[in-house]
Amino acid sequence: MALKDWLGRIRAKPSEAETPLSTPPGQLPEPEPPQGAPTLPPAASPGLSTAPVPVPPPFTAQPPLARLGAAPEPAPFEIALTPEEEAALREAGFEAEIEAEAPQPPPAPPPAPAPLPTEEPAEAAPAGWFTRLRTGLSRSTARLTESVTTLFRKRRLDEEALEELEDTLITADLGVAASRRIVEGFRRTRFGKEVTDEEVKAALAEEIATILAPVAQPLVLDPARAPHVVLVVGVNGTGKTTTIAKLGQQYREQGLSCAFVAGDTFRAAAVEQLQIWGERTGARVFTPAKEGADAAGLAFDALTAARAEGIQVLLVDTAGRLHNKSALMEELRKVVRVIKRVDPEAPHSVLLVLDATTGQNAVQQVKVFKEMVDVTGLAVTKLDGSAKGGIVVALAQEFGLPVHVVGVGEKAADLRPFTARDYARGLVGLP
Question: Which of 159, 221, 153 has its CA nearest to residue 191?
Fold first, then answer.
């Protein structure tokens, strides 16, 4: 006889004193019916009006498990035995069944995986100057190298290839004269040979570096002059004021005493910008008494004070002037004349700031400013936002003016002395 049958026989005749077994697991007890007669509401007193009592809808009882949602799946059969029942069943020989039906303990949860070791990301090292230069020239590089790669894929360097190369260089703003010079170098050394695009890039870098090498000269300050006056000129928006601030910070880091002259008296933002940089670097700033004041008079007073105080470097800002406006350019000449009254050799350096994004228009700017104020050197800015980095090669070939610094970013460290080899290799995309 099965274990269930024996248990049924044991539980078939419970004594009156015994209480019925509890509801099986997984079921709720049935609700007990109400006992006693229903209680009626008291009758209304005569003479009183009573409002009709709304009758609630009939109550429909839901099964107990319906209020709990879907019925759970039936659990495996387990027998809850009292001590007396268990003893009786064991005497009947159901020991193995009792052990089998006994509830098993839940399985132990699997051990949690060990946390992976977290490595803190290493701080990126600041990019070097050549990396920043290559990044700044990336647009110019893509424009030039894409054409070179298309032209030279294991091709013989004949006249047709040389003509196409010259057109490519002119389109990349290297100018007609520099492009012809480079092509002539190819004709002398590689004409009639099969070349690849990588060989052409390497040769281009060599030819460009040859053109740039004579103009790659730093801005040298004369310590015998106190102060060494640097007049900074250029058209509107080229970055003259920012260049002055960056140079001033670099000179201060070299241990030189430096002062700024806020000569752009028509633009209040330029005066405020130099004042902020003066506070950062500890440089003195000579400012106009009011907006629109005479820039020549301010330069005269600043140079006089700087000589008395022994300041070593005096950087003079000027208002942006369109190179095709003769009246504005004449005002710049006035500044130079007034400065020479204090020091006949001043200004000792005239730095023309050029925006690389202007491309071939920079050539005309150099021509006019060179005639007006005798430009002694160039600073090329905004190479990071330009696809016309080849303009530096065109300027070097046509004018031969020293290129003192180039800028590829907004930080002071992004304005650095110009180096021919680095610039040439960065321009053609070589490491």
Answer: 159
